[in-house]
Design goal:
This protein is of the alpha/beta class and 278 residues long. It has eleven helices and 13 strands. The strands form three sheets. The protein has a six-stranded mixed beta sheet with strand order 10-9-8-13-11-12, sandwiched between helices. It has a four-stranded parallel beta sheet with strand order 2-1-6-7, sandwiched between helices. Strand 11 (224-228), helix 10 and strand 12 (254-255) form a beta-alpha-beta unit. The longest helix has 15 residues, at 202-216. The protein is globular.
Length: 278
């Protein structure tokens, strides 16, 4: 049987572990000289008290490799195999570190998801269809799905993505012009954070994102994950702009975990889904 491990950049909450049948490796956040395990030792409310209320920008770091090794060894001793789905190698060193750690273990696959948050949720749901299949079979299924993943969001500001090193200076400058509202994507080929398109003003940007569902085509088998940071007011307005045929596909809202929310900044919002046109 295949067991799945994700990091907290998947935004799968601790209370959702049984729902998704996963183990979660918490990323680390350093705030006010105190290190927290993401999703375990820092509530979202407390995080935003410091992040928004006090203007503290956290430093994030990899999950404990010792914890990862102990967890994998325990799974292997039970006779199972392991697939690890960390956030994109272009926004975190977690993938590379875990790949090196388990490179010689045939029963462990570390996959570069080229995505984060809801994108990883969708990949986990795909694995759950094929837990009794071979690692080769499931890995191919995942790689095929990764090429169809669409993650597009509208941040309130590009400052946080740039400050955290997740968006290039070129992308930051291009998307920071006065009155221009950028749509940001996680490129499903490279795994990089990029400017997807730009619109003049928030409403036009929201309309562009709502129309993206038609442009990309949504595979209704997987649905749409609406995601946000801090407040969901803009997300609700975005959903109202979407064509009525997409509204039944919307899953439960995902309020992103602190380790990812700190890079998007407060009041970001967007859609994550599988394209049927790719």
């Amino acid at each position: 049987m295949i067991k799945v491990i994700v990091d907290s950049g998947s935004s799968i909450k601790q209370e959702e572990k049984e729902k998704y049948d996963v183990e979660i490796l918490p990323l680390k956040l350093l705030m006010k000289d105190v290190e927290y395990l993401d999703g375990e030792e820092l509530s979202i409310d407390h995080f935003y008290e410091m992040f928004v209320g006090e203007g503290i920008f956290p430093k994030t770091s990899l999950p404990s490799l010792e914890t990862a090794q102990n967890l994998v060894e325990e799974i292997l001793e039970n006779g199972d195999e392991v697939i690890i789905l960390p956030i994109s190698s272009q926004i975190s060193g977690t993938y590379q570190s875990l790949r090196m750690l388990f490179d010689e273990e045939d029963r462990v696959r570390v996959i570069d998801t080229k995505t984060a948050v809801g994108g990883i949720r969708l990949l986990v749901e795909e694995v759950n269809k094929y837990r009794d299949q071979t690692l080769d079979f499931v890995e191919k299924k995942l790689n095929d799905l990764i090429e169809r993943l669409v993650v597009v969001a509208i941040p309130e500001s590009l400052e946080y993505l740039h400050k955290g090193g997740r968006l290039s200076k070129t992308g930051y400058i291009a998307g920071s012009l006065v009155q221009i509202k950028p749509l940001i994507t996680l490129d499903n080929i490279t795994g990089e954070v990029k400017v997807y398109s730009k619109a003049r003003g928030l409403k036009k940007a929201m309309r562009t994102l709502a129309q993206l569902l038609d442009k990309e085509g949504v595979d209704e088998e997987y649905g749409i994950i609406p995601s946000y940071t801090y407040t969901d007011d803009n997300l609700k307005a975005l959903i109202e702009m979407a064509d009525d045929k997409y509204k039944p596909m919307m899953k439960e809202f995902d309020n992103l975990d602190p380790a990812i929310a700190c890079h998007w900044g407060p009041n970001a919002f967007g859609f994550i889904f599988i394209s049927k046109n790719k």
